[in-house]
Amino acid sequence: MKRPIYLDCQATTPLAPEARAAMLPYLDEKFGNPHSPHVYGYEAKAAVELAREQIAGVLGASPERLFFTSGATESANWALKGALSAQGQTRQRLVTIATEHACVLDTAEWLGSVGAEVIVLPVGPDGLVDLERAEAAITPETALVSVMAVNNEIGVIQPLATLAEMARKADALVHVDAAQSFGKLPFDLALCDLISLSAHKIYGPKGIGALWVREGVDLAPLLHGGGQEGRGLRSGTLAPALCAGFGVAAALAGERRTADAEHAAKLWDRALALLPRPFAINGCTESRWRGNLNVRFAGIDAERLISEVRDVAFSAGSACASGSGRASHVLTALGLSVAEARSSIRLGWGRYTSAGELETAIGMIGAAVARQRMAA
Fold first, then answer.
1. At what angle do helices 240-274 and 39-59 cross, to 10 degrees?
2. Which among 131, 173, 319, 376 is most buried, taking Cβ atoms within 10 Å?
């Protein structure tokens, strides 16, 4: 059976062959627990530490401060809850942005329910944060500023350097959700105190991520148990196969960063040339990762479009909100109406997407758009 053309790379990416090859030995003969004191444990631990070095190397960070987690959701939860918990009652303000991923916004809501002061900054129609509101909110009462470097739904790149400067003046910490930017864009580590990462967004395996914590930053544990990671900071037996796959995927992303970005930009230009008119792009077109195109067609039902074009895998937004029945919180934060949000689709391409595949896919989407318009 022919597989659909895949255009949903913000939801997940296919596993890189190199990452798969790195994982296989630790699924077979090298099955040891990396925390065990014998040869099976030692060889498993060696894979974990190599992966830690590979990932930290792409960040330009010290591997000793990179801690493996189950994914970016756990990393973001740990960053937000751990940072505010470590502050005690002295500073309990969290500042974040209305278009953040649910793992940040839902954690922020929980923190608010237990006494934290949470300020959620609005964005403009371009998806960029309101910097005047940010400057007013980021004061010496602020413990943490949390920002997604590249938005998962609209691909917009937030002004991290400006926000970090505001945070530094207030002596506040900066958490960056880098799930969609790691391995794709250059990173200035000096801007960040906490960085959450995900393997499966960079052609690595699902079920593993990491949190980088700057030296000197106090962070309370999120999970309690054996304290396997970071001298007691994070508990749980690590999976050497997942670590190995993440490490190789990260190293490959670092090596291919320029080539991958150029490929994404070429497909962006091709997509814009082929999409059926009229359409509108959601979010800023300049400060943006060009592997993400969120576009709306007035009067079109996006869910119906997805169901009609079965030979293309694409989405109407975040995979975690799929099927909720709610309009995208990211699109409504831009000022779009519910109807406009529900006429929007997200196309995401990546390293393994060919120009021919993209052209075929957009041709099918365009034909379905035309059918809906004729039936209206």
1. 30
2. 173
Give tens-digit pLDDT for 269-303.
999 999 999 999 999 999 999 999 999 999 999 99
**Most distant pair of Cα atoms in the chain: their distance:** 69
Runs of H (alpha helix) within the chain: 17-23, 39-59, 72-86, 102-113, 131-137, 160-169, 240-274, 302-308, 329-333, 338-341, 355-375
Q: What is the CATH number of the domain that holds 210?
A: 3.40.640.10
- Per the listing, tokens 């002004």 go with 159
- Domain containing 136 equals 17-251
For the cut 60, the answer to whether the pLDDT of residue 322 exceeds it is no
pLDDT tens track for 69-110 = 999 999 999 999 999 998 877 788 999 999 999 999 999 999
**Which one, of 358, 304, 296, lies nearest residue 330 by Cα?**
296
Residues 6+ apart with CB under 8 A from 275: 295, 362, 365, 366
β-sheet bridge partners, residue 150: 157
Mean local confidence (pLDDT), 246-267:
98
- Looking at the fold, whether 223 and 305 belong to one and the same domain comes out as no
pLDDT at position 376 over 90: no
The size of the chain, in residues, is: 376
Query: Residues 4-22: what's their mean pLDDT?
Result: 98
Exposure string of 133-150, with b = 16+ CB inside 10 Å and e = fewer, is bbeebbbeebbbbbbbbb
Q: What is the pLDDT of residue 187?
A: 84
In this prediction, residue 244 has a pLDDT band, given cuts at 50, 70 and 90, of very high
9 is catalytic: no
Picking from 217, 251, 285, the residue at the C-terminal end of a domain is 251
Q: Are 52 and 243 in contact (CB under 8 A)?
A: yes
Spatial neighbors of 293 by CB under 8 A, at least 6 apart, are: 155, 268, 271, 272, 281, 346, 347, 348
| 221 and 300 assigned to the same domain | no
